[in-house]
# Entry
Amino acid sequence: MITSSRDQERKERQDKRFISKETQTTAKYLRRIEELSGAPEGMKTFLDTLRHIYVDMKGIDIPSSQKTIGTYCVMVPQELIYAAGAVPVKLCSGNYTAFFIGDDITPRDACPLVKAVAGFKHTGLMPIYENCSMMIVPVTCDCKKKIAGMLSDYCNVVTMHIPTTKNDDDIDEYVMQLYDICEKLESVTGNRITYDTLSGAFYKVGRAQYELSEFIRLKKLSPYLIRGTHAMTIMNAAAYMHAEAWADALRSVNLSLSLRAMKGEKVTNKKLPRILLTGSPIVFPNVKIPLLIEEMGGIFAGDETCMGERGMWDPPVITDNSFDGMMRALANRSLRPCPCPTFADNSQRIYRLKQLIKENQIQGVIYHVLRGCLVYDFEYKLIEDELGKLDIPVIRLESDYNEEDVEQLRIRIEAFIELIKLKQPPEKSSKSRRAL
Ligand code: SF4
Ligand code: SF4
# Structure
């Protein structure tokens, strides 16, 4: 008995330490984002959402009768979850404190993202994990496979097989998996997925996709109306908001950006090097690289990562207006345009990168590799060669979920920005537009 009460006290002390560290680190990153100049009106909703989840440590803001379903990849169609009357929450994590806990219970070479997931689940203290009625884990790499096994010790986990190619047979097989997920969602929520609930879900997610497409259009305008770090914060908050609430909040931001464009306002008067970030996911609060880009005098102008634009970029295309047609549209949207390196042939990613470079007048690319993330690291050489042909400088930044490498990252990003400045033509003075 004495031992168990001591164990209990020790656990309470550990929990307190975890909560205090976790909330302090997250609050610090939120502060740094708030301190960046030029945040658009309407930004507060997204910052408050992240604060609510990670500093106040609360669940997502939906009626208590509604169930949440955890997902671990953009290839899980949110529409199915909404069609079952539940709400999806993305559980990939960028949390440093949870990473340190996960580090003790996972292999040394596992990636920090899954270490942080393991850490959160192990502590049992995060409502967004604890409240999930089911978790859907697409097996896109070995780390995801093993984390699915680990999570199933704590909760109801469904895995999805992700094919290595995107042939018609692969799509057929994916459609079957989606039907299987429908059954599991129905059994967890007690709600039937019907033609009407599924088309209603397409409408909900479609509104968010529409606002996102407008946001991306405004974000691309030159001179810039918004910083990439603010844009990424908005995208990250989507993981913890109902799609319709997120769409409404993004609409306010779009209106304020349109107003800026009309008034001739811009984020900065200086001609800052325009940088694109690609590679392993950047998940809040691990936003040290976007922050460093903008704090060191660059503009984070393009984003090809999964917690960013990629997550909701491609809307599903329905060619057959039946239930099965909608399921096929979801399978096609999940697999065909996805430039994740989990696929054997990923030439689409090169096409997408070139498109983003052109549309955003990118001058340099930062290739982010989370330590242990082999799939992304594997593609670095290919991307470096392709960008070399376009004379676009690229650097590979390997990073972890801790702050020990911040100085080293700062030095490398600063040197990269200087290199781009040397390549760009001298600045002409312009007084026609007002900086925020
Ligand atoms: S990087 Fe790949 S595995 Fe990870 S969320 Fe994106 S699509 Fe899924
Ligand atoms: S794709 Fe990379 S970052 Fe994502 S779970 Fe796998 S190893 Fe980790």
